[in-house]
Write a structure and sequence with these properties.
heterotrimer; A: alpha/beta; six-stranded mixed beta sheet; 14% strand; B: 3-methyladenine DNA Glycosylase II, Chain A, domain 3; Alpha-Beta Plaits
């Protein structure tokens, strides 16, 4: 059990709801981290955001270097950089699935790897303490760092002093999410055990970038070893805390009871600080920024070692895997390569889970490549409970009996049973009124439902329908404006033309009358002469 | 006697209510007909004319005068539902005579064939085509509503109308309860098959 | 590709219903012992009626019959109606009641989970209003009965209306010519004759009568505690309902004990415990929010006492539950929990 010290403290707060699924963590968290042999083929997304201003385009047959940008993006782009994980040759442009539930293929680039040499790509910034935060932020962006907790949000944007996210309150506390609350996943746990010093440095760097003066690590109490090692690191590396531009007021590890979904950003904030993020706002509005612990490690690597984000630690586990463990895997590695490299037993293996069992999608397509979002792959045989009732074609469930188990489990204090009724009857207004968009889709409600209703699917369906309806309405509003502007323009042009016609008609009429009274134009000639004389006189006598 | 009193009381009450209503209808009268604007806001603004009216606003006015709400294919079933809610009438099926509620399309000009005649620019109701006489014409994809009005005027037939590609960001899953019905159907179909 | 659910839910709906049915057993045994074999026969009959009604409607709706019946909800409805009915009610009467409950009050709305009213109580109320005489014809307790019909006699009474030359009314008359009724029924008559509640309680008939019913109620309470311990029901409804019954009736009794019975009598008579733990807690028709359940339970208890004391019917669980079923959407609307982030807890006092 964890004992409180001056660095380690037990959480004083708790979150509502939550569940306690079986953990399955001992399968993989007792092995050391290994490196997966590089795949011959790598498939990466090749989605541009519509602009390649002045960039050199990559074509078939080109050679790319490790860390080279595959797709140039604008400096202000929100799309994270896509960097090559190795020295390779471009073999194909096409379409591929990347693990999205829609199974809609997206533009992709296929690389044939040549070797696994990984020289330093960026200049290491060893004197980061005296480097401006903007420079470090630029490095975070250059290295293509995204959130490694599963949501892959571009880290540079999260850390940036963005008007929308930051408002006026400064960031006081950097919270580092090492909760890893989903069953099976142990990559953050093992990363912390082996790289605690580096993670600590990364945390200090991130605090420096955001101006935070407090650092809080959040761990669940099932990671005793990692907590102890990190606490030692914090205690021993005291010299790192000197010369910081924003002096560090406190650096602590808060340990919370193991409960799913304690690791959700909002839930973590409530657990560690007792505060709730106001609806429709970001944590920055209450002076906090949250980063996953693996992201922190990537920041260290990018800044101190000049390494881009092209690999991540992935938990390979399940009962088809002989030795479940965590592996460094390059982005774009097809699942099939993992299966052959690790000799994973494919008998009775129908589906794999990309991510954790609560939120990760399941797929039967083993050609899908890994990416920054995939922190775990579960290879379970068909008979395991985990594969129950997920087959889209045969999804059958009992009716809802309004037992309210889901309400008890919901960590956001919603009424899942009501949201279910509104979602399936497509009453979007009521669904929004019952705070549908505050649902974090954690799956705790589906887990406890005695009728086995896949509640999260209903909420996802409702949310997407509402979003699309809003987009459609916006589009039609703009089209209406454009149409009305056009009508006004035509009306204006017509009016001007009419005016002009009237004027010319009047002028013609006038000219005809003048001609009548003065047929040889003598009158106007005299007037013109008089005008010229007057002008001369004015010029002579200023 | 009592009946007379009762009748007088009720008559007086009715008259008082009537007077109140009449007063309110004069005092709180709204100029113009705001319902037309509200209806128009719910229409998709493609100005395509499939409903038989020269644009969305004329159709909105027609609806306000009692025309059926099911004549707009680009609005689809969702549009009919929204109109039905606004006007508090029955939801009815799309009138097939006006066209099918197809997936949205977008116009693309095949630049190799364009002759720069500006006929399509004049036809586009939302100014989504950029170009000038003897200059290349091109469609601004984000502003195109897929109304099809640019296709007939083009003398060299160089405008194509492909479907808008579905991306993971525009993907819409089916209502899961339909999957439930589907599962029930499949189960019974399998049951029947195993018997026969 | 499909979304993931780690579905290790502890109990399925059919398991829940089965456990609830099992929790009825102590009460069932007590009721059979004190009131007679008719209860057992009715339990079997009503279960059969319920399942047959459900199967019939499912066939008409072209729904999977076996899968739906196996959720045990129809059987549970049948059991609850049977326990609420007097023991030797004619077979066709219980058929009408149960069939109405299942077909009209449940399946017509869409089946399990879609009905706004408690089906068992709808069936019971239909019978109570249509056949008031038979529905209030309870047999005397074992302890004071001159003779309770045997198993065969009960069968004959239920199916033919008479057994061994005696009909239902004959069994209700005791040796001293007193026609038996439930304690609540008795007390109503006694109050109208001007007796005080303390006198009523001390009366020999009443005290033996109430003793039997107290045993029945306590047995149901035992089953109810099992439900609470196994977390099959939420504590809010039974606790607030029983508190409400006790405090309101005690309060009324304090004011005028010539019109109102003391609190404990209300708690152990009629269907108080059965209603509190098994009927009002029906998840489909009760309030679904935490705070809502407290209001729901308290109001059910309130109406039970009001109708028992001021109304024309001796027992009022069914009416109270149905009344509150109507109010559930409103209660739910006003008792929504505070969603995460909706209060300004995150901001400092100065920033609010």
């Amino acid at each position: 059990m964890i004992k409180e010290t001056d660095i380690i403290e037990l959480s004083k707060y708790s979150i509502k709801g939550g569940i306690h699924p079986q953990e399955f963590k001992l399968l993989s968290n007792r092995s050391p981290i290994k490196e997966l042999p590089l795949s011959k083929k790598l498939i990466l997304p090749f989605q541009s955001d519509n602009e390649l201003v002045g960039a050199k385009k990559i074509i078939l047959g080109d050679s790319v270097q490790y860390g080279q940008e595959l797709l140039a993006t604008r400096p202000s782009s929100l799309v994270p950089r896509s960097l090559s994980p190795c020295n390779a040759e471009v073999s194909e442009f096409g379409f591929s699935q990347f693990g999205h539930l829609s199974t809609i293929p997206e533009p992709s680039i296929t690389l044939l790897s040549k070797d696994d040499d990984r020289p330093t790509v960026f200049t290491p910034i060893t004197d980061w303490k005296n480097t401006k935060p903007e420079v470090l932020l630029e490095r975070v962006k250059q290295a293509g760092i995204v959130g490694l907790g599963g949501a892959v949000f571009p880290t540079a944007i999260k850390l940036m002093k963005h008007k929308k996210t930051f408002s006026d309150s400064p960031i006081e506390t950097l919270i580092i999410n090492a909760m890893e609350c989903e069953p099976y996943i142990t990559c953050d746990d093992c990363l912390t055990k082996e790289y605690a010093d580096e993670i600590l440095q990364g945390a200090l760097m991130t605090a420096h970038i955001t101006g935070a003066s407090n650092i809080l690590f959040g761990f669940e109490d099932n990671k005793v070893e990692a907590i102890t090692i990190l606490a030692d690191s914090i205690k021993n590396l005291v010299q790192e805390y000197e010369d910081l531009s924003t002096p560090l007021v406190s650096i602590k590890i808060t340990v919370t009871p193991t409960k799913y979904p304690s690791g959700g950003e909002k839930q973590l904030i409530e657990l560690l600080t007792g505060k709730q993020v106001p609806q429709k706002q970001y944590p920055a509005s209450i002076g906090l920024v949250v980063q996953n612990i693996a992201t922190i490690f990537s920041i260290y690597q990018a800044v101190y070692l000049g390494t881009p984000l092209t690999h991540r630690l992935v938990t390979i586990t399940g009962d088809c895997v002989e030795q479940p463990a965590n592996y460094w895997i390059a982005f774009g590695t097809p699942i099939n390569h993992i299966i052959t490299s690790l000799s994973i037993d494919k008998t009775n293996l129908k589906k794999i889970t990309l991510g954790g069992p609560m939120m990760g999608p399941q797929t039967t397509d083993f050609n899908i490549p890994t990416s920054a979002a995939v922190n775990c792959i579960i290879f379970n045989r068909e008979s395991k409970v985990i594969a129950q009732s997920n087959d889209v074609a045969f999804q059958s469930h009992q009716p809802c009996i309004r037992c309210s188990e889901c309400e008890t489990a919901c960590p956001a204090s919603l009424l899942p049973q009501q949201l279910y009724w509104f979602s399936q009857s497509e009453q979007w207004l009521e669904a929004e009124r019952y705070s549908l968009f505050d649902c974090i889709e954690c799956g705790a409600c589906s887990f406890v439902c005695p009728s086995e209703i896949p509640l999260v699917e209903y909420y996802r369906f409702a949310k997407l329908q509402i979003k699309q309806a809003n987009i459609k309405q916006q589009k039609s509003d703009i089209a209406k404006l454009r149409f009305e502007n056009r009508e006004r323009r035509f009306a204006r042009i017509k009016l001007e033309r009419d005016e002009k016609r009237k004027k010319t008609a009047a002028a013609r009429k006038q000219a005809a009358e003048d001609k009548k009274s003065d047929p040889e134009g003598k009158k106007s000639a005299i007037e013109a002469a008089l005008a010229r004389v007057k002008k001369k006189e004015d010029n002579a006598n200023p | 006697m009592e009946i007379l009193v009762a009748t007088l009381i009720i008559t007086f009450f009715a008259a008082a209510c009537g007077a109140l209503l009449g007063f309110a209808s004069e005092k709180f009268k709204i100029e113009g007909n705001p319902i037309v604007e509200q209806i128009n806001n719910l229409l998709p603004q493609t100005q395509c004319g499939q409903c038989g009216h020269p644009g969305c606003k004329p159709y909105a006015e027609a609806i306000a005068n009692g025309e059926a709400i099911n004549r707009c294919p680009p609005g689809g079933d969702a549009g009919i539902k929204a109109l039905a809610e606004l006007l508090e009438v029955e939801v009815i099926e799309l009138d097939q005579e006006c066209g099918e509620a197809l997936r949205p399309r977008v116009a693309i000009i095949i630049e190799e064939e364009c002759i720069g005649c500006t006929k399509c620019i004049q036809a586009c109701p939302v100014d989504a085509i950029v170009g000038a006489a003897k200059q290349m014409h091109t469609v601004i994809e984000s502003e195109c509503t897929g109304c099809d009005l640019c296709v007939p005027p083009c003398p060299v037939d160089c405008i194509e109308m492909p479907f808008v590609t579905d991306t993971p960001q525009t993907w819409l899953p089916q209502n899961p309860k339909l999957q439930l019905a589907n599962a029930r159907f499949l189960e019974s179909a399998i049951a029947i098959k195993s018997i026969t | 590709m499909s979304s993931s659910i780690l579905s290790q839910s502890k109990r399925s709906t059919s398991q829940v219903m089965r456990l609830v049915s099992l929790a009825l057993i102590p009460g069932i045994i007590a009721e059979i012992y004190f009131v007679g074999w008719g209860v057992l026969i009715n339990l079997v009959l009503c279960s059969v009626y319920a399942i047959s009604a459900e199967a019939l409607v499912l066939k008409l709706r072209k729904r999977p019959i076996k899968a739906t019946i196996s959720d045990n909800s129809a059987m549970l409805t049948g059991l609850l109606i049977a326990l609420a009915l007097p023991p030797v009610i004619p077979w066709w009467m219980s058929l009408v009641g149960v069939w109405f409950a299942i077909i009209i009050a449940k399946q017509l709305y869409g089946g399990l989970g879609f009905n706004p009213f408690n089906p068992a109580m709808v069936g019971y109320v239909l019978l109570l209003i249509s056949f008031p005489v038979e529905m209030t014809a309870w047999l005397p307790n074992r302890e004071i009965a001159t003779q309770l019909p045997s198993f065969i006699d009960s069968l004959q009474l239920i199916f033919t209306g008479s057994a061994g030359g005696l009909n239902l009314q004959d069994y209700r008359i005791l040796a001293d010519g007193y026609t038996m009724a439930t304690p609540l029924d008795e007390s109503k008559t006694a109050f109208s004759q001007g007796l005080m509640s303390s006198e009523i309680i001390q009366d020999a008939h009443f005290s033996t009568n109430i003793h039997g019913w107290m045993m029945i109620n306590l047995s149901f309470m035992l089953g109810g505690i099992f439900l609470l311990a196994k977390r099959l029901i939420h504590w809010q409804i039974p606790v607030t309902m029983l508190f409400s019954i006790y405090f309101i009736s005690s309060f009324l009794n304090l004011i005028d004990d010539q019109l109102f019975l003391p609190g404990w009598v209300h708690l152990v008579s009629g269907a108080s415990m059965l209603g509190a733990f098994f009927i009002a807690t029906d998840p489909v028709t009760a309030s679904t929010t935490r705070k809502g359940r407290i209001i729901y339970g308290a109001l059910v208890g309130f109406f039970v006492i009001i109708i028992r004391s001021f109304g024309g019917y001796p027992d009022a669980i069914a009416f109270s539950v149905l009344l509150l079923n109507i109010a559930v959407p409103t209660i739910d609307h006003y008792t929504k929990p505070k969603v995460y982030g909706s209060t300004n807890q995150g901001l400092d006092k100065n920033e609010r």
